[in-house]
């Protein structure tokens, strides 16, 4: 049962495939035979831009799906052979927890069983961002959970989701509109048809020149909540102006500024790893609802629409290609790879 991993040997270095140990799970851990890696844009920033300090050599990767190979002695909810998808907690240290390998260790909390006849790549592509969506909107901001049967009543609260064709953005639009909130979002013309089916009240063309884009977004407001799912300097410049036009407020972002940032008076960038609230003991019920109910049932019932999936060829040797693609910029798709290919 040899284990291979795509390892980053030093900061900003290309990843290399090497044989590594096959790990043993701890008392409340599982060992997963990894069958699909789902790539997240933050991973190219870690690998290529060195935005977070790491101990090298390192095995990166946060989200994956596979079959339970072994369980620790205190694990009671999972059995060998079950198909699961996993999202690693931000900041967890140890190469055994990185997704860019064939066998991965995970704690027994943020693990969701995959329904029969569902391709594991689908929930794997959703897992990380969906937990972040729930952590931000329901735990931190106190908004209602959605109703899978479409029975939610309309609420008098408006939300701007900048970046509706991103994974976080598209899931946010669905989550909030299903809960009865009025959502305005943005998209390029290329992805407008897809985004327009997710439940937003309006989809604004983000390729407009900045002044026109700000004017159109302001005209659809005011907003009780503004979220920038792209969170780059050029998008923050737009969303901050929208907030300024309505008197300022918090700008919820997907990443910190990573450098000096000047925002208009009254506007504050707010960021934390948005899945973190689900690890807090007081939110155990919310976490269990996400991973055991909303994710699997939402997929089965068609309430959650995933982005189209593009498979990177070459298995672990293709991880560098995936990182390159994300660095160049992708929109409207999720990248996955088969570590056994």
Automatic annotation (TrEMBL):
Record-annotated Enoyl reductase (ER) domain positions: 10-330
Top-level taxonomic group: Eukaryota
Which CDD domains does the record match to this protein?
A: enoyl_reductase_like
SMART domains, per the entry: PKS_ER (SM00829)
Keywords per UniProt: Oxidoreductase
Return the InterPro entries for the record: ADH-like_C, ADH-like_N, ER, GroES-like_sf, NAD(P)-bd_dom_sf, Trans-enoyl_RdTase-like
Give the GO molecular function terms.
Answer: oxidoreductase activity, acting on NAD(P)H
- Pfam families given in the database record: ADH_N, ADH_zinc_N
Q: Which family does it belong to?
A: Belongs to the zinc-containing alcohol dehydrogenase family.
Q: What is this protein called?
A: Enoyl reductase (ER) domain-containing protein
In its UniProt entry, the species of origin is given as: Phialocephala subalpina
């Amino acid at each position: 049962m040899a284990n291979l991993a795509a390892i980053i040997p030093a900061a900003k270095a290309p990843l290399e495939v090497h044989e590594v140990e096959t790990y043993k799970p701890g008392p409340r851990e599982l060992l997963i035979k990894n069958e699909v890696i789902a790539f997240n844009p933050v991973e190219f920033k870690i690998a290529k831009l060195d935005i977070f300090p790491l101990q090298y050599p390192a095995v990166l990767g946060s989200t994956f799906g596979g079959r339970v190979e072994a369980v620790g002695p205190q694990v009671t909810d999972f059995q060998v052979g079950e198909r699961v998808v996993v999202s690693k907690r931000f900041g967890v240290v140890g190469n055994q927890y990185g997704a860019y390998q064939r066998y991965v260790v995970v704690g027994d909390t943020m693990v969701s069983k995959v329904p029969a006849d569902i391709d594991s790549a689908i929930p794997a592509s959703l897992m990380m961002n969906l937990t972040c969506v729930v952590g931000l909107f329901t735990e931190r901001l106190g908004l209602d959970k959605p109703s899978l049967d479409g029975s939610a009543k309309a609420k008098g609260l408006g939300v701007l989701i900048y970046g509706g064709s991103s994974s976080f953005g598209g899931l946010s639009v669905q989550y909030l509109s299903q809960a009865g909130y009025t959502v305005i979002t943005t998209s390029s013309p290329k992805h407008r048809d897809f985004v327009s089916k997710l439940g937003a009240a309006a989809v604004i063309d983000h390729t407009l020149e900045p002044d026109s884009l700000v004017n159109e977004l302001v005209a659809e407001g005011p907003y009780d909540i503004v979220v920038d799912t792209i969170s780059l300097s050029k998008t923050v410049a737009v969303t901050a102006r929208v907030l300024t036009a309505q008197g300022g407020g918090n700008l919820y972002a997907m990443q910190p500024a990573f450098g000096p940032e000047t925002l208009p008076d009254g506007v504050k960038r707010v960021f934390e790893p948005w899945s973190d609230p689900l690890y807090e003991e007081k939110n155990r019920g919310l976490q269990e609802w996400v991973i055991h109910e909303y994710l699997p049932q939402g997929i089965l019932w068609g309430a959650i629409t995933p982005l189209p999936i593009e498979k990177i060829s070459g298995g672990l040797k293709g991880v560098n290609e995936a990182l390159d693609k994300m660095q160049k910029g992708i929109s409207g798709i999720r990248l996955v790879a088969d570590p056994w290919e």
